[in-house]
Amino acid sequence: MGTLVALTVLTIALTGCGSNDFRTDGIEEVRVSESDGFSSFQERDVITYDELEDVKVFADMIRNTEQQPGVVNMATPEYDVEVQYQDETVDRYYVWLGDLGMPTSIMDVNDTHTVYLVPADVTDELIRLLEQG
C-alpha cells in the first residue's frame, strides 16, 4: 500500500510541475519581433519562421516550460512571439531570452501574472535561431 501511495505522489509531482496547457500541435508559422512592452504587440519588423526545423524550436520552447510559483512583476519583454496554427488560431507570448546556458522566461499575453521558464538547452537553440534571423 505504501508503495502505491508513493508512486501516485511521484506521478502527480512529475506531471504537475512541468505541465502547462499551452498548445504545440499544428503550428504553421511563428512570427517574432522586438517587443514594445506589455501594452502592445509589435506588428512591424517581424521575422517569420515557417520552416519545420525552425518551428520545432519554438514548439520545444512552449512545450518544455515550467510554471514558476507566485505572481510576477517582470521588466519589459525583449520579444513578442506570435504562434499561428493551421486552423488559423493564434497564441501570443512575451519572451525574455536568457544567455547561453541559462533559462528563458516566457509569458502568455493573456496571463501576465504567470511566468514560465524554458530550459537552458532550448534557450541555446532559440539564440542560434534568432541570431540567424
Kindly describe this structure:
The chain has one domain (2-132): Immunoglobulin-like, CATH 2.60.40.4400. The protein is globular. The chain is built from 3 helices and 7 strands; from the N terminus they run H-E-E-H-E-E-E-E-E-H. The chain has helices spanning 2-17, 52-63, 120-132, and strands at residues 27-34, 47-49, 66-67, 79-85, 90-96, 104-108, 116-118. The protein has a 7-stranded antiparallel beta sheet. The chain is 31% helix and 26% strand. It has 133 residues and is α+β, with helices and mostly antiparallel strands.
DSSP strand content:
25-35%
Please write the CATH class name.
Answer: Mainly Beta
Helix/strand/pairing class, anyone? Answer: alpha+beta
The averaged pLDDT comes out at 83
Spatial strand arrangement across the major sheet: 2-1-4-5-6-7-3
End-to-end C-alpha gap: 55 Å
Total DSSP E strands:
7
CATH architecture classification: Sandwich
How many helical stretches? 3
Counted up, domains total 1
Task: Give the helices and strands, then pairings.
Elements (H helix, E strand, L loop, with lengths): L1 H16 L9 E8 L12 E3 L2 H12 L2 E2 L11 E7 L4 E7 L7 E5 L7 E3 L1 H13 L1
Antiparallel strand pairs: 1-2, 1-4, 3-7, 4-5, 5-6, 6-7
Helix pairs in contact: 2-3
